[in-house]
Write a structure and sequence with these properties.
The protein is mainly beta. Helices cover 11% and strands 63% of the residues. The chain is globular.
Length: 109
């Protein structure tokens, strides 16, 4: 991962094989970022996505593999009890036009 600061903004390039949430969290810790917004696009080949189960009060995730275009990605960074929390909503698209929308990136287990 590479990143560069422009005023109060940061531009990140996350390389293939690197986990999006971990890399963003590293920048937050290195630059003492407590709150922010995130926008992105790109591609992924292996992604865990989740949706919040209100009855169980937890995120449930599902892993997808294949070629995915990240057509849109927006989210926020917040801090709870001194720990960064990063939440994204995105639209993923595959070669066969399948769309997966409004799910959250989940850390790999």
């Amino acid at each position: 991962m590479q990143y560069k600061k422009f005023g109060d903004d940061f531009i990140l390039r996350i390389d293939r094989g690197e986990e999006v949430l971990q890399e963003i969290k590293k920048v937050c810790e290195a630059e003492n970022i407590l709150l922010g917004s995130v926008q992105g696009l790109g591609a992924t080949w292996d992604v865990s996505l989740g949706v919040f189960n209100h009855e169980a009060f937890k995120y449930e995730s599902k892993k997808f593999t294949g070629d995915f275009e990240i057509a849109s990605c927006s989210g926020n960074i917040s801090t709870i009890n001194g720990e960064n929390r990063i939440k994204f909503n995105k639209i993923l698209r595959t070669k066969n036009k399948m769309r997966i929308a409004n799910l959250n990136f989940m850390p790999s287990s």
